[in-house]
Amino acid sequence: MARRLGADPAGDSDPRSHAVIVATLGCVEADLMAWTSSDQPQALATILDRAIEAPFRP
């Protein structure tokens, strides 16, 4: 991830790669919570797409 962002993979001074990874894991956690608490079955991928898109859509 760090290389894709143009950061040093061995360095900890650039928080971008950590932020992307933690945000993604948060979306997965929200996805699983929504999936297990829903009365109506939905595909995990559909819920995950909604979670990941949340910061970019109203």
The span between the termini is 27 Å
- Element order: H for helix, E for strand: HH
Helix percent reads 55-70%
Fraction of residues in β-strands: under 5%
Q: Specify the structural class.
A: mainly alpha
Overall residue-averaged pLDDT value: 91
Sheet having the most strands: none
Uncertain spans: none
How many separate helices? 2
Report on this model:
By secondary structure, the protein is an all-alpha fold. The chain has a domain at 26-56. The protein has two helices and no strands. It has helices at 16-37, 44-53. α1 crosses α2 (44-53).
Topology (SSEs and partners):
Elements: H1 16-37, H2 44-53
What key phrases describe this protein's structure?
58 residues; mainly alpha; 55% helix; 0% strand; elongated
Concise account of the structure shown:
With 58 residues, the protein is mainly alpha-helical. It has helices at 16-37, 44-53.
